[in-house]
Design goal:
The structure is a homodimer.
Chain A lengths: L12 E5 L3 H12 L5 E5 L3 H9 L5 E2 L2 H6 L3 E4 L3 H14 L5 E4 L5 H7 L8 E6 L20 E5 L6 H13 L3 E5 L1 H33 L8 H7 L6 H10 L1 H24 L2 H11 L8
Parallel strand pairs in A: 1-2, 1-4, 2-3, 4-5, 5-6, 7-8
Antiparallel strand pairs in A: 6-7
Helix pairs in contact in A: 7-10
């Protein structure tokens, strides 16, 4: 049983900049668990703001400056390219009591850009490891974060009180917290998230190309296929900025992935099914890790 | 609402040879919908037979010959390499009223081998397109086939009454039926099933290799990663025989897949994110196909 979060502050007003899957789902959680007494939304797309109000994700929509000035916590949950522009603006506006959280999938590039900002200490770089293949405020769902991990990145560059509030916020959402440096974070997420998307996009393209020529192929698609291409539904507006900012890590892992696939190819050419068998058994070790 | 199947025959005794995920789940469905009045199990592993009895998948376990002789329908649901040995034995034993169904993932090799068998007409080659990453009788689940497609392959090589009974059986399980030639079947399943498994095995290996050196990497694994590597839990005992028998098709598609991934790699090298964006948008078309 998860009890409602008991805030030690009387009223915690939270602004969420970018009300999509990630920001919108945080809005739901923070309202439901009582951490936020009020949620203000800011989105570049007016239609998103309207949807977010209709769906009760946010209490009101305000222009960026007004929202930031009236909030205790500002969560920036835009695509990572937009963060490069929005975060300096937000940091320019905050005082020494306010806390800014960003929740992007890549860190090194962004945090290097922000390194010398006078209010850098008010920013806590975080990455709640949860999502779906859908995007926009209509994709926001309750309990998206429940029981998952969040990463707090380069915590030593943030003020202690700001980190504490970030930890409180994520714990209120029943998340586990882990700590990484920006470089390490970007390598790890490339392995457990970014390459999965590349693999899925490529698989979808390969099979869609065949479908064009043959048709009827998807009649036979089973749930296994659905599972491996699920991520191929993900939006390029979210993913291209991630691949751009984490390009070097993604390339390294893509090379390793292609090389593993090429080994499989060689085994097929040589009809070396004994080695192939051993490789599959080795891959089965993923059972111990993914339930 | 699905109504219980009304059999036109008073008692339909079904033998299932190979009581794993596929055979065991068929056993559950055929008993629950009333199609089978009795299910006899045959498995090379005695422990599987015992488990299947304990789990009420089968009414009794018998030696192959006895089981075949006492059944109206014999379903062969072993790995596809075992089918090469078992199916001729079963066909040797059946009379002109009995029906043999095989449910393997590859067809061309097997059906070529069986082409000249005097009882070939009693065999209906089928492929119910459903499964999970688990195997063995403990993996058998109700409703695995509900609403999915089954393929009847090379139907013209089977007796009409046998095809009719196969159709009745699959319709009793609420499956849609489609018809393909063996060659076409093997190409299609290579695209919508076999390559997904290769992609997943390779992804699991790539990330497991990294974990060995770095550790802690899986703490961050989100549901997206879990989805793309789910199939990597699948048993080599099932999959190596499939890759062996469908080697040429799998190689062709693996080449196409590697080539798509290499295109992505080139885009990353050139920082050509505009083309990459277009490719992801194209991959998004999978939304129209996979719900």
């Amino acid at each position: 049983m998860r009890l409602p979060y008991k805030s030690t502050r009387l009223s915690m007003i939270v602004s969420i900049i970018g009300i999509g899957l990630i920001g919108g789902s945080m809005a739901i959680s923070l309202q439901e668990n009582g951490f936020a007494t009020k949620v203000i939304g800011v989105d570049a797309i007016r239609e998103h703001e309207k949807k977010a109000i209709r769906r009760y994700l946010i209490d009101e929509a305000l222009p960026l400056e007004e929202a930031v000035k009236g909030s205790d916590i500002i969560i920036v949950s835009t695509p990572v390219d937009v963060m490069l522009k929005v975060l300096p603006q937000v940091l320019d506006l905050v005082n020494k009591k306010q806390v800014v959280l960003e929740v992007g999938s890549t860190k090194e590039h962004l945090l290097t850009e922000l390194k010398s900002h006078p209010n850098r200490q008010r920013l806590v770089a975080t990455h709640p490891m949860a999502g779906t293949e859908y995007s926009g405020p209509e994709a926001a769902i309750p309990n998206l974060y429940d029981g998952k991990y969040t990463v707090i990145v380069d915590q030593e560059d943030s003020a202690k009180d700001a980190v504490k509030i970030a930890e409180d916020l994520y714990r209120s959402m029943n998340m586990n917290i882990t700590y990484l440096g920006a470089t390490e974070h970007d390598v790890h997420t490339a392995y457990v998230s970014h390459i999965s998307h590349i693999s899925s996009f490529a698989l979808a393209l390969t099979v869609l190309e065949k479908e064009k020529n043959e048709g009827r192929i998807f009649e036979l698609a089973s749930s296994g296929f659905g599972s491996t291409v699920r991520l191929a539904k993900s939006s390029p507006n979210m993913w291209i900025p991630i691949f751009r900012q984490n390009r070097d890590n993604v390339m390294t892992i893509l090379d390793e992935y292609i090389s593993t696939l090429s080994e499989f190819r060689t085994m097929l050419i040589k009809k070396d099914f004994d080695t192939f068998y051993d490789k599959i058994e080795e891959a089965n070790n993923i059972r111990k890790i993914i339930s």
